[in-house]
Amino acid sequence: MELSFEHLTRxxxxxxxxxxxxxxxxxxxxxxIIGPNGAxxxxxxxxxxxxxxxxxxxxxxxxxxxxxGEAITLVFQTPYLISATVxxxxxxxxxxxxxxxxxxxERVGFLCEELNLTGMRKKKAWKLSGGETQKxxxxxxxxxxxxxxxxxxxxxxxxPATTAEIEKMLIKINEEEKTTVVLITHNLAQARxxxxxxxxxxxxxxxxxxxxxxxxxxxxxxxxxKFIAGELLI
Length: 234
Hints:
ATP binding; transport; three-stranded antiparallel β-sheet; Rossmann fold; ABC_SmlMolc_Importer; ATP-binding
């Protein structure tokens, strides 16, 4: 799914926290949104997902200024699962969409295998570790073949092994199912491993966008360079 922004702003109580003259997310990309705290990253993601309303401006989805809700899914940093087993959580979006039981079983089985969840399909959601919960939330989000997957710091509080599993799945689903992936991350090493494009935000502004490896290795903007170098941005 191709996204573009035009004169996109969001203000709260008179304070503008996001002000994007323009910007884009290419269809089929794995785009990382990076920047310091308060840059507007989560605000942008919530606007794309339709969880918040812009103060002004537009977001275009494949050229249309309306949200194709059935094609978008969002995974939060702290996800919420229904009070049921792992497999029922993953199957839930498919049951809502009227999938046949055979197709549901096939999709749930595939996602469990890919994310190393097969041995815990019958495990109750409230007994899962943080990493397991995040994997189930990702599997649930991917269950119905979304065209756009949005993730807000999905590996911020989990162990390296689970992080590696999630990153591998993001790349696989992007390459094989052509799902456009948009990932907020503070982990620049993760952005290097996972993303092919990057948007760098600061103070609600889009400072630089383009090829991830180029931006992360040799940014053109001085603010981006300082952020990548680990300097404090005031």
